[in-house]
Structure to design on (262 residues):
């Protein structure tokens, strides 16, 4: 069942498996180059997810997951119907902030506590494509994948909510080196440094995603939500606070299991 198809983004949900939804980048002929329209569609996909969905799979059609920002954005003509980079630069600070904040909405809903998101990455994930893969909780990639953060090489900074998950995944020093050099990170290195969870042969990507999805759905939903919230909250808590959060979460689960929840 197709719930959304616009601006190179398709959201589908399987009626036989209502706990799974798939978001697909469909502009494969352009290597899924992203535009503000792409980001509006991705944000809308998050709002349209049925409440039954527990796992969201993100993938791209064609030879690449996403080659990054559509380079037309840097030309004087820009992308028809969209704010150009030149026009954005002429806005005041509040205007620039508001525009980029709207773009970031496409990259922020993937880590909601009630969902687990899985990026199935093949080909290239460059710049905005890299940041979109980083937006997900988990990443499985094909052996031929190349990641790169190209923004700094273009005189810009990564601004689509990808800097924190990158640092969280690989550490500050490695993240700095990857961003500033703009070099390509291959699949094997990505797995070694913690950037991806699993690397598989290209032909096995769909099967590996299906296996992971099944495993993610095996545990009760409420326990998964509480566990994800606990893990996501560790960055803002010291050890004692984290232990207290564990106790509070377990109390909720115990009461729920014996039918004493409110």
């Amino acid at each position: 069942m197709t719930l959304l198809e616009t601006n190179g983004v398709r959201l589908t949900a399987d009626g036989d498996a209502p706990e799974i939804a798939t978001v697909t980048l469909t502009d494969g002929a352009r290597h899924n180059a992203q535009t503000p329209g792409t980001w509006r569609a991705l944000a809308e996909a998050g709002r349209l997810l049925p409440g039954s969905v527990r796992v969201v799979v993100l993938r791209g059609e064609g030879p690449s997951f996403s080659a990054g920002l559509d380079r037309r954005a840097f030309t004087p003509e820009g992308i028809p119907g969209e704010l150009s980079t030149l026009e954005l630069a002429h806005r005041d600070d509040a205007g620039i902030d508001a525009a980029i904040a709207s773009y970031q909405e496409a990259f922020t809903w993937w880590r909601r506590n009630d969902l687990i998101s899985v990026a199935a990455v093949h080909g290239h994930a460059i710049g905005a494509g890299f940041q979109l893969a980083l937006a997900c909780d988990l990443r499985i990639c094909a052996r031929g994948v190349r990641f790169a953060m190209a923004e700094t090489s273009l005189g810009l900074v990564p601004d689509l909510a990808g800097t924190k998950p990158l640092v969280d995944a690989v550490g500050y020093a490695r993240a700095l080196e990857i961003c500033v050099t703009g070099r390509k990170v291959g699949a094997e290195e990505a797995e070694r440094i913690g950037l991806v969870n699993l690397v598989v042969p290209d032909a096995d990507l769909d099967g590996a995603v299906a296996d992971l999805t099944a495993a993610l759905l095996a545990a009760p939903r409420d326990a998964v939500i509480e566990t994800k919230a606990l893990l996501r909250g560790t960055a803002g808590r010291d050890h004692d606070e984290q232990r207290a959060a564990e106790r509070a979460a377990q109390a909720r689960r115990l009461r729920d299991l014996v039918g004493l929840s409110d």
In short: The first strand starts at residue 2 and ends at 6. The chain has a mean pLDDT of 96.
